[in-house]
Amino acid sequence: MSQSPSPATQELSEVQRRAVSELLRVSPVADDLARRFEQAGHRLALVGGSVRDALLGRLGNDLDFTTDARPEEVLALVRPWADALWDVGIAFGTVGAKKAGYQIEITTYRSEAYDRTSRKPEVSYGDSIEEDLVRRDFTVNAMAVALPGKTFIDPHGGLEDLAHRVLRTPGTPQESFSDDPLRMMRAVRFAAQLDFTVAEEVVEAMTAMADRIEIVSAERVREEFNKLVLSPEPRKGLRLLVATGLADRVIPEIPAMRLERDEHHRHKDVYEHSLTVLEQAIDLEEDGPDLTLRLAALLHDIGKPRTRRFEKDGRVSFHHHEVVGAKMTKKRMTALKYSGDLVRDVSRLVELHLRFHGYGTGEWTDSAVRRYVRDAGPLLQRLHKLTRSDCTTRNKRKANALSRAYDGLEERIALLQEQEELESIRPDLDGNQIMEILGMKPGPEVGRAYRHLLELRLEHGPMGYDAAVAALKEWWAAQS
Fold first, then answer.
1. How far is CA 348 from CA 141, 308, 323, 451, 459, in A?
2. Residue 4 pLDDT class (50, 70, 90 cuts)
3. pTM of the shown model
4. Any idea which fold 1-164 has?
5. Contact predicate 349/386, CB 8 Å
């Protein structure tokens, strides 16, 4: 009498079937490349994330290979075959290529280890795929398919861990994280990106070794953090980042939001509120993951811990936390080597996120609406989403009232935009016209006149040429 297969066996069979389907899809390119290496006396295997994603049924057009050929030999083999070739990673043993729409990376068998005082990995080449796989970050990334014969290589039980969606390391986690501390950030990212559980012994090692992340360059940390924030379920990863103490070394403003609640619970849990705002912002995305919006949602309240005050009437206040938070955001993002444009945009959204709450039930004048649009500039649509996401109250009546008020503001903005082209608000006279009318040369007076006319434009809307000339002359006479 035959026994029915166990659930784990059924899961393994399912992922294997998916893998065969995915590998058949990329076979023409992969096999063609493998034959070139085989004819030259070298071995080639699909490896790491490509095998993992094939087993998950989500293999894209990015293919990772490993080989015993040295980088210079890889270049010589791939150059006549590829549609395009680049060697920016050759110092780390990696050659990149493009072929038939696939992005390909071929890396020589290697091992990496960090010097205790170095921010850069020391690269040494290995001679066997088993040696290469044991130094990889997690068992689910330590599987390979030798080509062209398609022999499955899994010395560390990655297939079973994949079936159970658990992250373990091929060797001890202490050895793995000593080799490359960034792997702790990768564990956090994979937990969020793939919805995996991190094994208990791995979490314990991450917690004990969190300070090792400080030797990794800010750029590498930033890239992993971005992938975490851009993942489908970032809350899971962010909680792990905080729980292990990694966040204290990488972006301490996030764990700092875990404010102790006052005895009367007069303010929300700022940390959990921020995670919820991030999730609600994600729900409002229209064209895929938006790093600017997500960072602003996560960081919008980081100024609260520094501005918290217990008032005499028992209330808790956070006066000007948006201004303080914008400065903190700029400082942290600069330290993580974000681009100047991204630092500027995220900081600006943090600074503006409370502006709407002065709108009330529609008391703003048209000039106030114009200023709101002008101050947001190209960030207006993101500010709309951030402001809506910032409502996490369980009071349905209050939530509905806020939503209706913002609907009203957006309708007024749309109407004024149609009438006045708000995105391109400028004075009715430009700098050249100001100089001609007042008979002056370029200088600070022109700028002052321009700003005066801009204020009039914001306050009263379009004036027309004649009215603007009269207003300019009146202002200039008063200055004289």
1. 39, 21, 9, 21, 23
2. very low
3. 0.78
4. Beta Polymerase; domain 2 (3.30.460)
5. yes
Helices (DSSP H) in 284-320: which residue ranges?
291-299, 304-307
Quick one: which of 273, 275, 270 has its CA closest to 233?
A: 275
- Give the DSSP letter of residue 210: G
Contact 165, 192 (CB under 8 A): no
Cβ atoms of 125 and 110 within 8 Å: the answer is: yes
Residue for token pair 């590998």 = 23
CB atoms closer than 10 angstroms to residue 256: 18
Task: Report pLDDT digits (tens) over 448-474.
Answer: 888 888 888 877 778 888 888 888 888
**Cβ-count burial 134-155 (b if 16+ within 10 Å, e if not):** bbbbbbbbbbbbbbeebeebbe
CA distances from 364 to 372, 409, 418, 419 (A): 10, 9, 18, 18
Collapsing DSSP to helix, strand or coil, 142 comes out as coil
Residue ranges covered by each domain of the chain: 1-164, 283-424, 431-479
Residues 318 and 303: their CA atoms lie apart, in Å, by 8
Question: Which residue type is seen at 386?
Answer: L
The residue type found at 69 is A
Strand residue runs (E) in 19-93? 44-47, 62-67, 84-86
